[in-house]
Design brief:
This protein has two domains: 15-169 and 229-318, Bira Bifunctional Protein, Domain 2 (BirA Bifunctional Protein, domain 2), CATH 3.30.930; 328-425, Anticodon-binding domain (Rossmann fold). The chain has helices at 15-34, 48-55, 60-64, 84-93, 138-154, 170-184, 193-201, 212-218, 230-245, 290-293, 308-318, 335-350, 364-374, 384-389, 410-425; strands at residues 38-39, 45-47, 67-70, 76-79, 103-112, 124-133, 160-166, 251-252, 264-272, 280-286, 301-307, 328-332, 355-357, 378-382, 391-396, 402-406. By secondary structure, it is of the alpha+beta class. The model has no long low-confidence stretch (mean pLDDT 92). It is elongated and about 95 Å long. 35% of the residues are buried. It binds one RNA strand through helix 3, strand 6, strand 10, strand 11 and helix 11.
Length: 426
RNA sequence: GCGAGCGUAGCCAAGUGGUUAAGGCAGCGGAUUGUGGUUCCGCCACUCGGGGGUUCGAGUCCCCUCGUUCGCCCCA
């Protein structure tokens, strides 16, 4: 088996599936532009440092999932595992704060993580995301969540769980970390191996361990929310209130901590039960320290990212097959007729119709069969007879009704045809 | 990195040690040299992911390997 095939964790998105992607992209563009978010496109690879400093050295993403390589100039580069870091880098590099804050941005593109593929997880995957840079206002937190909600709802996705939490500011977190470590240390031998390791490396991550015994121990652990400073607490209450005012049902999940180091205050996840183990379709939070961390001015920010592969999986369960958008299928036989059918195809396309031209040259019977399978509403037939008198047979494929139409009348009849096609589609 | 399942045609598949590897869908050709969605006929795997082994005999059993799926970890 030496045939070349797509690499593990990468896949081809074939035309039947692309229509779902386009549906998401169309809806997203509309929602973003109505909320004054502008698209930003950043490079697919960056200096390795950028991700190490932003995402955090101790995280799994940086520790074991990055596609990192040396280029010919011996620089260490990394294919982006996520895009917040890149957007923040661009924000700083181009002094976007000078264009006024907040900057509301969105992006869409491929990301790369070296992991074992499984349902809803690829090595090259795609994320759609938003970032609001330069606002600490709780309304910004609520706005980005509301936009995510709009997007998912417009796509027809329901049965989603919105979980939110606050991990406070840096001081809150440090104090809580200490308390958690103090509480957990006596139980260390009973924790699962990963959690034991995290106890020193990244204790907060222990909270969302799936091990039963670890979770039992955590039942009586100190609660993160009780370690929030009064300001952080007030802030979180405000975000929750704003979400409720918007009618966005959500639950507080005190165990929700995210895997990337840069988060502060609000963190949230939107999950679905229809995806198997990879339940999260959208996740994000506030990252007030990141811009400064990467060398910019202190800038509060909040954002999220959503996995396109997971969204399309959900969409496909809702709509197993998108209907054909084809209006006409053109059939012809004989030199002159074939030449005329090409002319007619172009003419109809210029009038705004979607037209497929049969170029097989096979028998009419075969061509009709293909017309039927194409999903077109009507077919236009040009044979010897029609070629002689510059007409075509217009056949409505569903009813089988057929009428003669002069080739020169097509543009005059366009409006009528449009209406009839619309009627057949409905 | 770890665990489990699965690899037979473009797709879905039967086959569970014994002569020539079912069937269905799609495709192509024909019945029907100008009318489809029904029907009928024909064509479409020197070979069962690859390699090695056991056996008189292997798609079928064993080992290795590659690929893939789902799960763990982690994440969108």
């Amino acid at each position: 088996m030496s045939r070349i095939q797509a690499l593990r964790g990468t896949r081809d998105i074939l035309p039947d599936e692309v229509s779902y992607w386009q549906q998401i992209e169309t809806v997203a563009r509309d929602i973003f532009s109505k909320a004054a978010y502008r698209e930003i496109r950043t490079p697919i690879f960056e200096q390795t440092d950028l991700f190490e400093r932003s995402i955090g050295e101790a995280t799994d993403v940086v520790g074991k999932e990055m596609y990192t390589f040396k280029d010919r100039g011996d620089r260490s580069l990394t294919l982006r595992p996520e895009n917040t870091a890149g957007v923040v880098r661009a924000f700083i590099e181009h002094h976007l704060q000078a264009q006024g804050t907040p900057q509301r941005l969105w992006y869409l593109g491929p990301m790369f993580r070296y992991e074992r593929p499984q349902k809803g997880r690829q090595r090259q995957f795609h994320q759609l995301g938003v970032e609001v840079l330069g606002s600490a206002d709780p309304r910004a937190d609520a706005e980005v969540i509301a936009i995510a909600s709009d997007l998912l709802q417009t796509l027809g996705l329901t049965d989603l769980r919105f979980a939110v939490n606050s991990i406070g500011n840096l001081d809150d977190r440090n104090q809580y970390r200490e308390a958690l470590v103090t509480y957990l240390t006596p139980y260390k031998p009973e924790l699962d191996a990963d959690s034991q390791d995290r106890l020193t490396r990244n204790p907060l991550r222990i909270l969302d361990s799936k091990e039963a015994r670890t979770q039992e121990i955590l039942c009586d652990a100190p609660n993160l929310l009780q370690y929030l400073s009064p300001e952080s607490k007030t802030r979180f209450d405000r975000v929750q209130q704003l979400l409720s005012d918007l009618g966005i049902a959500h639950t507080i999940d005190p165990r929700l901590v995210r895997g990337l180091d840069y988060y502060t205050h609000t963190v949230f996840e939107i999950q679905s039960d229809a995806l198997g183990a990879q339940a999260t379709v959208c996740a994000g939070g506030r990252y007030d320290g990141l811009v400064q961390e990467l060398g910019g001015e202190a800038t509060a920010a909040v954002g999220w990212a959503s996995g396109l592969e997971r969204l399309t999986l959900l969409l496909q369960t809702l709509q197993p097959l998108l209907p054909s958008a084809l209006d006409f299928y053109l059939i012809s036989k004989g030199d002159r007729a074939e030449a005329q059918s090409l002319q007619l195809a172009q003419q109809l396309r210029h009038l705004g119709f979607a037209v497929e031209l049969d170029v097989s040259g096979s028998a009419f019977g075969k061509q009709f069969k293909r017309a039927d399978r194409s999903g077109a509403i009507a077919c236009l037939v040009v044979g010897e007879t029609e070629a002689d008198n510059q007409t075509a047979q217009l056949k409505w494929l569903k009813s089988g009704e057929q009428e003669a139409i002069a080739q020169t009348d097509l543009s005059d009849q366009a409006e009528r045809l449009r209406q009839q096609i619309a009627a057949h589609r409905a």
